[in-house]
Amino acid sequence: EHCSAYSTYGSDTGSLTLQREKCVRLTCEKPVKVLTMNLELEAGYDYVEVYKADGRTPLDRFTGTGTVHVGYTGDIVVKAAFDETVDSKFELRWLCGEEVPERS
To answer: Are 1 and 21 in contact (CB under 8 A)?
Structure first.
């Protein structure tokens, strides 16, 4: 399943809270996108997936609850895959920089 519509953000920093399915494309000029994601995903089908800029090549998939801190080089697409009928929610913060951090 690929994104049919995107919200594109070009700023070096930002945050969003998503409570329904959405795709976010991050296109800041600095090469590295550092994400901090707070996940509260219902068990089962709900997940957050990170793709390369084409929106088709998967890099990572996250499920469950907790905080993830991860960095990627190049433009990326973050897809929140859940619908409005569940209690899942997902907070995404990003910071663009020059270096990929260690995963935590």
So the answer is: no
Determine if the pTM surpasses 0.85: yes
pLDDT tens per residue, the chain (104 residues)? Answer: 667 778 999 999 999 998 777 899 999 999 999 999 999 998 878 899 999 998 889 999 999 999 999 999 999 999 998 876 778 889 999 999 988 777 65
Provide CB contacts within 8 A for 43, sequence distance 6+: 63, 64
CA-to-CA distance for 70 and 36, rounded, in angstroms?
A: 7
Q: Please list, in sequence order, all residues whose beta carbon lies within 8 angstroms of the beta carbon of residue 97, skipping any fewer than 6 positions away.
A: 30, 32, 34
